[in-house]
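S.,

Sequence below, as promised.
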Amino acid sequence: MKNSMPRVLRALVYVIVGAMASGLANASQVTASTMKYSNDGAYVARFYIQYKLDDGKACWVKPKSMSAYVGPGSWIKYGLDDNMQVFLGPNRCVDVGGGIPNGIEVWGRVQIDSGSSESCKKDKRVIYQSSGGLISYKTKGTTFNKNRCRVSSWPGD
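The prediction came back faster than expected:
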């Protein structure tokens, strides 16, 4: 009986550690169906949704019905299920209906006019799901200084 107790405790520890690891893995990604970008900088910027296809090809898209331009002090919100226009990448970046493939990792991309291009990709993955929440990004600073893309709120915040 004494020898079986350590095995039971060991099994319990494995279960607890496994459950914690599973929870941490789920915490490293969120689902989103909408992206918002706020330009708090002193420049005009363009905002795109970026992702990669299975073969590694990069895609930059935006809703066909909206402009990508965002002036200083302005913001824009994109529904990820909108009919998309490909800005950069092959035509197959969008499905037959003009949409982003469901379940793919997405992130924002800010192209500052006469300045830098800033990826909004972070360690926490954002997965496009039609039932997901809102991911909000912002930039500030000037054309070339202190303008990195930040997450201002995650889905569920």
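The first helix runs from residue 4 to 27.

Coffee later?
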